[in-house]
Amino acid sequence: MGSLLPIGFAAPWVLTAFVALPVLWWLLRTTPPQPAYVKFPPLRLLLSLHNKEETPQHTPWWLILLRLLLAAILIVAMAGPVWKPLDIAEPKAGPLWVIVDNGWDASADWDRQIRMAEMLVEGASQNNRTVMLVTTADGPAQPMRLSSAQEVADQLRALSPRGWQAARSELLPALQKQAAQSPPGAILWFSSPLEEPSTTSFARGLANIARATDVQERAFLIYRSDTPVYALKHLQNSAGAMTTTILRHPAPLSETLTVRAYDRKQRVIAEQTVELEPRQNSAQISLELPSELRNDITKLSILGKASSGSTVLVDEKWRRRKLGLFAGGFADRSQPLLSPLYYLERALSPFADLPPAKTTDISTAVSDYFDKGISVLVLAEVGTLPKSTEAEIASWVSKGGTLVRFAGPQLPEKQDSLIPVALRMGERKLGGSLSWKEPQALKSFSPNSPFRAISLPNDVTVNRQVLAEPTADLPDRTWASLEDGTPLVTAKKHGNGTIVFFHVTPDTKWSNLPLSGGFVDMLRAITSISSTAVLPPQNETDGPASASALPLLKVLNGYGKLIDTSVNHQPILERDFANTHPSRETPPGLYGSPEAARALNLIEDDDTLVPLDLSALSMATTLEYPSEKPLDLRGWFFSIAILLALLDTLALLWLSGKLRSNRVTASATFLLITTSLILTSTDKVWAQNSAEDFALDASLDTRLAYVITGSPEVDEISRAGLFGLTRLLTDRTALEPETPIGLDLQKHELAFFPIIYWPIDANMQLPGPQAMSRIGAYMRNGGTILFDTRDAYGPSGSNSQNKQKLQQLLQGLDIPSLEPVPHDHVLTKTFYILDEFPGRYNESPMWVQASASSSDGSRPVRAGDGVSPIMISGNDLAAAWAIDPEGNYLYPTIPADSNQREMAARVGINILMYTMTGNYKADQVHIPALLERIGQ
């Protein structure tokens, strides 16, 4: 495509026709226009005779200029002018290679990337060229073949960014093979911003292919994205907060980022903002919440920057557990360093909550711990357990609890059922005058234990321990062993829970294990396998920790959303899960079972965002993605040419004298003006004024609607409020409405909408009689109008101008009797249980159609769906729902209360569910079955 400043031409050779303009000028100048023909009487003709000879008149200069301009514009139009044309490869003969980065980092600029690829492939289709499409995140197994441009365009439209990092270097052998069979004529690479973690440079390999196949610089284009990429890593759930680190690249400007935490139902639990300075590429976010709320978090994501890299899935590993600690001797607390709980508290407190025991009575203390919902119970140097306490602990473990016991002098000769292996009586002392051998060091961790990912500490020695009786299942129940093969930690499954036994004390009397960092890692690993919720008992199984495979349940796509997997990915062995890196074979997402899913996140703690290195591609042309789509100007130039042709026709009529008739003049002028309006009017304006297009928009998708009052401020609040309510419905319910619509009551059809929000403004004009008749018909046929006077906060009370305007409006409608929403109304329980109906304010009641009570006091079900045709509030509901495109609320509640904001959101959802589902929850027939179902 030829280019001239910001204008390019699809057929620049046509511009050579400009050399013919001087010849055209000479022809037009020497050819006179058609002479004027006027009928005169014979006498007039004789009187006007002249004897001198007259020469032909030349064409006027302005008519010559008009026709030259018309010819020039036609030449430009036929040359195919394009405003801000694309830089398109200029290949030699050969196919076109289109390489698309579709890893997670491409999601930030995906729309521009695919739009550019589609436009360039469309250009290839006009030249009947074959195209090969290669996606860098799908590996060398993808089919690499030449196809038609139309087929590749269809494939591009079906693409979406993957949830893992693109592995470009894996494609080089297949590309080299394809280049040997069919050398490319041009190469287009639509790259993402980040480099892959590989020692092989894809850019250098691609340059070698281009050099070997003689691809020139103008035929080797790389479109590089400059849109920042964001990521989250290093999630920690500490004693007071959940923290994570934000990464971004590039970081040229200052900006404010918001991290949101979601629960299992994708409801927002908390959010935190952070300010990033120019060239600052990382920051830490801290969500300070009670541990109970933090345990409900299932996902963290950066608001408005969603991708699989900026999303962290939270599983049981990150839940903060409650642990109960109980020691056999509380008297040692007066000397902390001699207390068996001293080392346990300091090892566990960074990642667990440790509620104190209220009493030294083990039965009372254990029962109190269970009431607090602990996940792990640690018994240090506890000897004989009361039978009732032993049975209570055994029942708790079988439901999913984890019991950790430590040896000590108090172990009884007669062992209870809460020790995983049979023990030898007496203690084994090492390193003394009458001892067995020297102090022993740790030798290994079992691959079936939760310690398998821990580096073996080499500073641990054991001086004394309790030995286990050798049995056939002892190796399977051993999690950690000493150098001589004797077990240090043993465990067994008991129902859904686990019993773990350390063969040493929790202090330094028998070993230096409590002084080692490995002690903290071992306790953390045990805590991580415990459950935060007690599960119903299942079949009891003994043996080692499960080594079963974990199948992929949900995959995290490039936009940070969990979706069903469409490819049969290989499961991950449970013992290998901690060391598994996300990739194409093991994508980020949820693995295992729905009841106990394991999260595999894309960004690991030591990962960084490495920018793409294109220094090896000096032979290629590197371009930025255009900020706007090229505009084809041919239609505009042809339109101007038609206008100039009409002007030329009028000029000829005027010169020939045929415009003397007023009728002809008026008709020609009308034709010119009409044609000009048709040519200059855009399709978009006609579409906006088309009733058919409005009907399609309103009926094909569910949309919320508001009445346009004529006040820009009020209408913008209504639009932003219903936009926010649309987001709430999408996030919390199965309903997914499209963007809201503003209604002009004079011309728009109302029947498409189940509910219409009508904000009252004192300065708005009342609808005319015809519009009021249509409103009344809408309400009688089942529609609901929510009137909002927006004046609940203020001294005016019932005499406000908005209320007066509403009274004037309702005088023209057939309105039923109204009452404040009763406590047993369907509106109070259609989705959430509500006692009040706040918006931005919480001073006004919600009024609905009154319903008379029956003789037994119950409220009868009305005919139809039982939905009130009118609702009235003064709490400014739309302002409470209003958000900007980034999801930030625009107006504070009065008073400023986050709970009031949440209640306003629930009010909106209840209203929508009420108007769309009717009175089904008022049906008393199902109440006994529902109560029986929930066990009441």
UniProtKB/TrEMBL annotation:
Provide the transmembrane region boundaries. Answer: 6-28, 61-83, 636-655
The UniProt record lists the Aerotolerance regulator N-terminal domain at 7-81
Keyword set, alphabetical order: Membrane, Transmembrane, Transmembrane helix
Q: Which residues form the DUF4159 domain?
A: 703-916
Q: Name one Pfam family in it.
A: DUF4159
Keyword Membrane, does the record have it? yes
PANTHER family in UniProt = BLL2463 PROTEIN (PTHR37464:SF1)
Protein name, per record: Aerotolerance regulator N-terminal domain-containing protein
Q: What is the scientific name of the source organism?
A: Pseudovibrio axinellae
**Species lineage:** Bacteria, Pseudomonadati, Pseudomonadota, Alphaproteobacteria, Hyphomicrobiales
